[in-house]
Amino acid sequence: MGVMTSTETPLDEKAIVAAAEQALADISTVRSEVSKVIFGQEHVVENTLVAVLSGGHALLVGVPGLAKTKLVTTLGTVLGLDANRIQFTPDLMPSDILGTEVMDQDENGRRSFRFVKGPVFAQLLMADEINRASPRTQSALLQSMQEYHITVAGQRYDLPSPFHVLATQNPLEQEGTYPLPEAQLDRFLLQVDVLYPDLAAERQILLDTTGIAEARATKVIEASRLQEIQKLIRQMPVSDKVVDAILSLVRSARPGQGNTMTDRHVAWGPGPRAGQALMLCARARALYEGRLAPSIDDVHALAEPVLQHRMALTFAARAEGMSVRDVISGLVKQSNA
């Protein structure tokens, strides 16, 4: 019996390595398919895909017109997901997202209620300009992101699987926006900042998108395959060294833990969910980059998208013109030292 188990263990490892190598190949095909349509936003594409591969939701923040919507539509196509889009507006109601009960009458005149599903019933939901809707409507969406089901008139309805929300948000300085509360921001695995493209990418955008034929993405994998990869990512081993790096980074971002810079500038820091996000995303990023195990570099590269929406600066730090990003990069430098 003992002999059998000793020969079985390496096979298991071999099987995991083989599965991971197959996942590497699939992810690489997904990357190249997305790059046919989205130019020069490698960082944005990487972080958004890492969030989806980790099984989570992402918040894309940037001014209008930076291809955020196009990215989400492209990902839906490439990953074989059934996608919907909701444009958030101040008068949008929770029922416009979740669905509503309508009165039906049969041929005998008997009346009954029937539930008509809202756009939230999709595998990939794009919530466009989420900070334009009222807090009540925002929380209807954010609750479904957390619980993967909704309740209407006391009846529970499960959302499709997989279920991912990619929300876009305008920078908060813009008028007519309702900032998302901290507890709701925490439900996003990553916050991805979408910046202006560089010169070469913008030139390519001009040339490729104003002609008659525009590049279109095609489906590369099925939703079921995406779920297999997500499961595999959760099985990837993480070395103690990487776990320690995650813990020390997350804890150093909290005031009162002995970090002078944090104590001076940070009002409140990230909770344990930030560490969970780093554990998952570091594995997904390793696969995305073509590696079979996460490294401390993955943790440092993900520090900003994982931490920036989970901490806030003191009034004094903001008055000095500091940003959360400055603090995070300082903490990463300290941990590198």
TrEMBL record:
What the entry lists under PANTHER family is as follows: MAGNESIUM-CHELATASE SUBUNIT CHLD (PTHR42759:SF1), MOXR FAMILY PROTEIN (PTHR42759)
Taxonomy, superkingdom? Bacteria
Q: Does the keyword Hydrolase apply?
A: yes
The protein's matches in Pfam families, at most eight in alphabetical order, are given as: AAA_3, AAA_lid_2
Q: Name one GO molecular function term.
A: ATP binding
Kindly give the InterPro entries that the UniProt entry links to this protein: ATPase_AAA-3, CbbQ/NirQ/NorQ/GpvN, ChlI/MoxR_AAA_lid, P-loop_NTPase
UniProt domain ChlI/MoxR AAA lid: residue ranges:
260-328
Spell out the protein name for this chain. MoxR-like ATPase
Coiled coil segments of this chain: none
UniProt entry keywords in alphabetical sequence: Hydrolase
- Domain ATPase AAA-3, chain residue ranges per copy: 57-190
Please state the Enzyme Commission number of this protein. 3.6.3.-
